[in-house]
Amino acid sequence: MQHIEFTPTQVIKRQSLDAAVRERERTEVGRRIGTASGCFSVPRIEGFDPASGTLTFERVLDAERMTELLPTLTAVETSRISGRCGAALAAIHDAAESCPRDDAAAGQVSLHGDFALGNLLFSRARDKLFVIDWSGARWLEEARTGHGPAAIDLSIFLLSLFYRRPLDTVRVIDPARVARAFLASYNDARAAEYDFLELRRSFPGILRRYAADRWRARGALRMLVRLDALCHVRRFVLNLPEGLE
Ligand SMILES: Nc1ncnc2c1ncn2[C@@H]1O[C@H](COP(=O)(O)OP(=O)(O)OP(=O)(O)O)[C@@H](O)[C@H]1O
Ligand SMILES: [Mg+2]
Predict the structure, then answer these.
(1) Model confidence over 41-51: pLDDT tens digits?
(2) Cα separation of 211 and 226, whole Å?
(3) From atom 17 of ligand 1, which residue's Cα is the shortest distance away?
(4) Whose CA is nearest to atom 1 of ligand 1?
(5) Most exposed: 56, 183, 240, 243, by fewest CB within 10 Å?
(6) Structure confidence at residue 167 as a pLDDT band (50, 70, 90)
(7) Cα(231)–Cα(159) distance, rounded to whole angstroms?
(8) pLDDT (tens digit per residue) in 189-214
(9) Which atom of ligand 1 lies closest to the CA of 114?
(10) At residue 133, does pLDDT exceed 70?
């Protein structure tokens, strides 16, 4: 279980020592990839207390979470900014640093591990993308190792993009269009063309585990009203790469 606290200038996260050590390590890797690629930034770690498993991050003050930002943008801006997210993810996946050579030879990549809209912040004032929360999705064991199939991060992004309740007022209006902009830009930015067959093959299994986790966390009823969104994202992924230019 973790605890998060905000001061005017810092974000303080307390969790188990293991989880804190892993997040610290992954955040440093992410910062290096962000700097080297110039595609995104990662908030600086300003403190680490092993005794309490506490990590203190610099707080980004002028950025909004993509979850809230995307629904407020024009179609052109939505495509542009989701394209920036795609390019950032391509840079993470093409970074060799956290993927052992044998796994890379087997087609694995460096992962973010929880590349969801809620973990992407965007500053419109500075036109800058921040990638936060390198702790790895709790519901997906493989996401926490730092490397694995690219399909893991792609699936997590797409699930967060399509996931909503029927009456949500703040939501991305046409998630399939945003997803296409994201994936096209991801594919363009990857060093080698991405084989969408990998995503199509892995997605149903990842979706099942995501739905099971949401079911446990939120209850059956809340899950059922979102079923339509989950069917939509499933249909979208199983038709890929159709619709990507
Ligand atoms: N450095 C930061 N600057 C500004 N806001 C931040 C920062 N870090 C985290 N936040 C805010 O706090 C929220 C939770 O942070 P984070 O995602 O790191 O924690 P978490 O508990 O692992 O989240 P979750 O389990 O919901 O993914 C983020 O969605 C973001 O709104
Ligand atoms: Mg998070």
Answers:
(1) 999 999 999 99
(2) 10
(3) 133
(4) 59
(5) 243
(6) low
(7) 11
(8) 999 999 999 999 999 999 999 999 98
(9) 27
(10) yes
Q: Point out the ligand 1 atom lying closest to the alpha carbon of residue 118.
A: 29
Tokens read off for 206: 């990842």
Distance in angstroms (rounded) separating the CA atoms of residues 215 and 213: 5
Q: How far apart are CA 216 and CA 210, in angstroms?
A: 10
Q: Other CB atoms closer than 10 Å to residue 173's CB: what's the count?
A: 10
Is 133 touching ligand 1 by the criterion CB < 6 Å? yes
CB contact set of 28 (below 8 Å; sequence gap of 6+): 45
Strands 109-110 and 147-148: antiparallel
Question: What is the rounded distance in angstroms from the CA atom of residue 151 to the CA atom of residue 157?
Answer: 10
Measured between alpha carbons, how far is 157 from 183 in angstroms, rounded to an integer?
A: 10
pTM above 0.85, yes or no: yes
- Let me know: does 29 contact 111? Beta carbons within 8 Å: no
Using alpha carbons only, how large is the chain's radius of gyration in Å? 17
Instruction: Give all strands (DSSP E) within the chain, no chain letters.
Output: 3-6, 10-14, 45-49, 54-58, 64-65, 109-110, 120-123, 128-131, 147-148
How confident is residue 98, by pLDDT bands cut at 50, 70 and 90? Answer: confident
Q: Which amino acid is at 22?
A: R
* Ligand 1 site, residue 132, Cβ cutoff 6 A: yes
> What integer pLDDT is reported at residue 62 of this predicted model?
96
Query: How far is the C-alpha of 217 from the C-alpha of 222, rounded, in Å?
Result: 10
Instruction: Give the ligand 1 atom nearest the CA of 137.
Output: 27
Say which residue the tokens 């990998």 belong to.
Answer: 198
